[in-house]
Amino acid sequence: MLPVVGNHDVADDGVSRYLKIFGPLYYSFHLKNSYFIMIDNSNEKEIDPWQMNWLKNELEKSRKYKHTFVFMHVPFMIHETLLMINPGIH
């Protein structure tokens, strides 16, 4: 099991509960020739600048592995796709 934080996990001050049960909100590890990156985009809007910097570094580290996998709760393109369908969404 690879936990990835989601919007329902952090609602109503659930961050501390998530951290206690599952650990960090974002993390990475390698296994054989694969590199795994879990990111926190649970706010459904953006990745904060600290995590974005961390992600850039992790992606650079992952270059020495044959496979790189990035997991997140909300697909990156979902917000942009919704804006294309309904320009009134913010």
Please summarize the sheet with the most strands: 3 strands, mixed
Order of helices and strands: HHEEHEH
- Please tell me how large the radius of gyration is: 15 Å
User: What are the low-pLDDT stretches, counting only 5+ consecutive residues below 50?
Assistant: none
Total number of strands: 3
Report on this model:
With 90 residues, the chain is α+β, with helices and mostly antiparallel strands. It has one domain (7-85). It has 4 helices and 3 strands. A hairpin with a 2-residue loop joins β1 and β2 (34-38). The longest helix has 14 residues, at 49-62.
What would the keywords be for this entry?
90 residues; alpha+beta; three-stranded mixed beta sheet
Give the topology, please:
Blueprint: H1 7-10, H2 15-22, E1 27-31, E2 34-38, H3 49-62, E3 67-71, H4 78-85
Parallel strand pairs: 2-3
Antiparallel strand pairs: 1-2
Summary of the model, kept short:
The chain is an alpha+beta fold. 38% of the residues lie in helices and 17% in strands.
